[in-house]
Amino acid sequence: KMTQEVIAVDSAMVELRKVSDASNNDLKNYFDEAAKSAKDLGAAVSDVISATADWSRLGYSLDDSKKLAEVAILYKNVGDGIDVDTANESLVSTLRGFQLSAEDAMNIVDQFNEVANNFPIDSAGIGEALQRSAASFYEANTDLSKSIALITGTNSVIQDPDSVGTMWKTVSMRIRGATAELEEAGLETEGMVETTSQLQALVKGMTGFDIMKDEDTFKD
Questions:
Q1: What's the per-residue H, E or C state across the chain?
Q2: How many CB atoms within 10 Å of residue 23?
Q3: Residue 217: what are its φ and ψ, rounded to 5°?
Q4: Contact 166, 156 (CB under 8 A)
């Protein structure tokens, strides 16, 4: 298999050179680091480099991309059968959805793993649900920990992370009166209020509860 792996590693480095603005010397040094990371993480060198290229393509620096790739490999290792591409996609959705920085990536995986070890959902399932719902949770001012809790509690009954993620995305859009988002998703909007201020007044009139912290921010 040596020939195949050499070709795979070379192809991954070519792709990384295309998408990274790092110097040739930095990329040469990175190659040695990638080989060490692959050995430490029990992964193929080509997978580590490809994951780094994926993050570089999103605009992260080579240093951040390397760290994020290592976190993605760790997530793959604890993610119950997912591949590195799926691990990357889940981390991207969660980081971007909650507007977190690269330094928060390891904390995300730690939370996934902690919950998966204690509740009826695996790490891959949490990531899958958040791919569909992270941005909507963020817009509803719900943080990552609470979002994971809502997903986990719902999945304990439904046992389908894909459906759970889609359900919470829809619930968030309806709670926020996000008509445009619902229409874009092909969902029914008939009878919905058309502005946040109308929704705020409607709920407050029915329940006495104000759904807004201020004119721009929903309560958690």
A1: CHHHHHHHHHHHHHHHHHHCCCCHHHHHHHHHHHHHHHHHHCCCHHHHHHHHHHHHHCCCCHHHHHHHHHHHHHHHHHCCCCCHHHHHHHHHHHHHHCCCCHHHHHHHHHHHHHHHCCCCCCHHHHHHHHHHHHHHHHHCCCCHHHHHHHHHHHHHHHCCHHHHHHHHHHHHHHHCCCHHHHHHCCCCCCCCCCCHHHHHHHHHHHHCCCCEEECCEECC
A2: 10
A3: -125, 125
A4: no
Alpha-carbon gap, residue 64 to 169, rounded angstroms: 29
- The owner of tokens 């994971």 is 148
Neighbours of 166 (CB within 10 A): 16
pLDDT (tens place) for every residue of the chain, 220 residues total: 889 999 999 999 999 999 999 999 999 999 999 999 999 999 999 999 999 999 999 999 999 999 999 999 999 998 877 888 999 999 999 999 999 999 999 999 999 999 999 999 999 999 999 999 999 999 999 999 999 999 999 999 999 999 999 999 999 888 888 888 888 888 888 888 878 888 899 999 999 999 999 888 889 8
Whole-angstrom Cα Rg for the chain:
21
Given the structure tokens 């603005």, which residue do they identify? 21
* pTM higher than 0.70: yes
The residues, any chain, with a CB within 8 Å of residue 59's CB and separated by 6 or more, are: none
